[in-house]
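HUMAN: Forgive my ignorance: could you write out one protein's sequence and backbone structure tokens?

ASSISTANT:
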Amino acid sequence: MRGRPPAGAAPLTVMGTVAGALVAHGRAHDLRNAARWLSDQLELDHLRKKAAQESIPVELGGRTRFIDPGAVWFAEARGDYVRLRTAEGGYLVRTSMAALEQRWAGAGFIRAHRSTLVNARHVSELRFADGRALLLVGTETLPVSRRHTREVRERLTARRA
């Protein structure tokens, strides 16, 4: 559709596009509904970012530690658990990759593989070897699935620009 904002565009960009289209088509009276929608989107965006900043409780040796999402290099599926890898080591959390991906959507995490979610801030290199994409995250080298290679490259490039 012509004049459509790009997927994942900032709410104000989307609102500008919507307002322009409404005025161009003689529907300026619908701007109130569009403004209400924008307000809802901004509130959702704020709540997602707030949730992304929340610590994750992990059990370790009879103690509970709280891990900040920004400290996590990557998350890896391990059956019914997810292993969080940080500079300090690995921690198992009883959650699903889908739940973690949704919870940390606003924190800069990228799905690199169906079993791996990486923190873009900790990616130091994207390289190709034998036709496969690999990420250097912290001290670990992680494979990127063919299905996710394009999105990983685009999101890392956009983040660095």
Notes: Residues 31-52 form the longest helix (22 residues). The beta strands are 56-60, 63-67, 72-78, 81-86, 89-93, 109-113, 116-119, 123-129, 132-137, 140-144.
